[in-house]
Automatic annotation (TrEMBL):
<keyword id="KW-0256">Endoplasmic reticulum</keyword>
<dbReference type="GO" id="GO:0046513">
    <property type="term" value="P:ceramide biosynthetic process"/>
</dbReference>
<keyword id="KW-0560">Oxidoreductase</keyword>
<comment type="similarity">
    <text>Belongs to the fatty acid desaturase type 1 family. DEGS subfamily.</text>
</comment>
<keyword id="KW-0443">Lipid metabolism</keyword>
<dbReference type="GO" id="GO:0005789">
    <property type="term" value="C:endoplasmic reticulum membrane"/>
</dbReference>
<protein>
    <recommendedName>
        <fullName>Sphingolipid delta(4)-desaturase DES1</fullName>
    </recommendedName>
</protein>
<dbReference type="InterPro" id="IPR005804">
    <property type="entry name" value="FA_desaturase_dom"/>
</dbReference>
<dbReference type="InterPro" id="IPR011388">
    <property type="entry name" value="DES1/DES2"/>
</dbReference>
<comment type="function">
    <text>Has sphingolipid-delta-4-desaturase activity. Converts D-erythro-sphinganine to D-erythro-sphingosine (E-sphing-4-enine). Catalyzes the equilibrium isomerization of retinols.</text>
</comment>
<dbReference type="Pfam" id="PF00487">
    <property type="entry name" value="FA_desaturase"/>
</dbReference>
<feature type="domain" description="Fatty acid desaturase">
    <location>
        <begin position="31"/>
        <end position="253"/>
    </location>
</feature>
<dbReference type="GO" id="GO:0016853">
    <property type="term" value="F:isomerase activity"/>
</dbReference>
<keyword id="KW-0812">Transmembrane</keyword>
<feature type="transmembrane region" description="Helical">
    <location>
        <begin position="71"/>
        <end position="88"/>
    </location>
</feature>
<keyword id="KW-1133">Transmembrane helix</keyword>
<dbReference type="GO" id="GO:0042284">
    <property type="term" value="F:sphingolipid delta-4 desaturase activity"/>
</dbReference>
Length: 287
């Protein structure tokens, strides 16, 4: 349980890669802007959201320098185009403390999502619209007062977006925003949203994925390991599995996030309702 300082340099390189991409797409035809937004920008953007996930656990600088992590999260957020980092941290800590907690864990779909997105076509649309539902769900389920850091995150993001538009125009701005929306919707990496906690097998609430896309996602696929030891950086989660193989090797697991998306749509027994929801008892402490 120690910081992963390599995370800092990886995030810096990802930000520089996106800045380079913003410059390169500014004069392309629109069809190529859309193409590169999906093929390249979406991968970097989704990977960056998972870098922010790591930073939310203070993996960049450690728990003793929590504010360094918050500022670095705001920096990592910049090429996404939409303010995300600070709010994500607040809600994600609730997800770990109160997994499946009714009215607390906003990773749980709303009753409307479970009721409406119940056919194969509607479930497909739900996957496409996942960024939208992840954005509005906290406001519906567990709205929180806005904090000073969230305002700073918003102002920093708006300033960055204005600078990108001023320097390189509408195509670069579109590429930035489209990459984030596409990367979090109908995209192979987005399979992790469903793979992590949807109950494809009754009695099993959390699942790990051990496929190659962990290389792009800071090992978020090692999800049982992550929930057992949330203060261990993603870089070290494969070592956790190796050390404690007898606890993980025999659990249900995935090797393809694309297959998870396919099975979610095609399996009529699975829907947004396929989550464990708990009625919490006692005192609830939220960020």
């Amino acid at each position: 349980m120690k910081p992963d300082y390599n995370l800092v340099w990886v995030v810096v390189l990802m930000v520089l890669a996106q800045l380079t991409a913003f410059y390169l797409v500014k004069d392309l035809d629109w069809k190529w802007v859309v193409f590169w937004a999906y093929v390249f920008g979406s991968c970097i953007s989704h990977s960056m959201t998972l870098a922010i996930h790591e930073i939310s656990h203070n993996s960049a600088f450690g728990n003793s320098k929590a504010m360094w992590n918050r500022w670095f999260g705001i920096f990592a957020n910049l090429p996404l185009g939409l303010p995300y980092s600070i709010s994500f941290k607040r809600y994600h800590m609730d997800h770990h403390r109160y997994l499946g907690g009714d009215g607390i864990d906003v990773d749980i779909p709303t009753n409307f999502e479970g009721w409406f997105f119940c056919t194969r076509f509607r479930k497909f649309i739900w996957i496409v619209l996942q960024p939208f539902f992840y954005a509005i769900r906290p406001l519906c389920i567990n709205p929180k007062p806005i904090t000073r850091l969230e305002i700073i995150n918003l102002l920093a993001q708006l300033s960055f977006d204005v600078v990108i538009y001023y320097l390189w125009g509408v195509k670069s701005t579109f590429y930035m925003l489209a990459g984030s929306v596409l990367g979090l919707g109908l995209h192979p990496i987005s399979g992790h949203f469903i793979a992590e906690h949807y109950m494809f097998l009754k009695g099993h609430e959390t699942y790990s994925y051990y496929g190659p896309l962990n290389l792009l996602t800071f090992n978020v696929g090692y999800h049982n390991e992550h929930h057992d030891f949330p203060n261990i950086p993603g870089k070290s989660l494969p070592l956790v599995k190796k050390i404690a193989a007898e606890y993980y090797d025999n659990l249900p697991q995935y090797n393809s996030w694309i297959k998870v998306l396919y099975d979610f749509v095609m399996d009529d027994t699975i829907s947004p309702y396929s989550r464990m929801k708990r009625q919490l008892k006692g005192e609830v402490k939220q960020d």
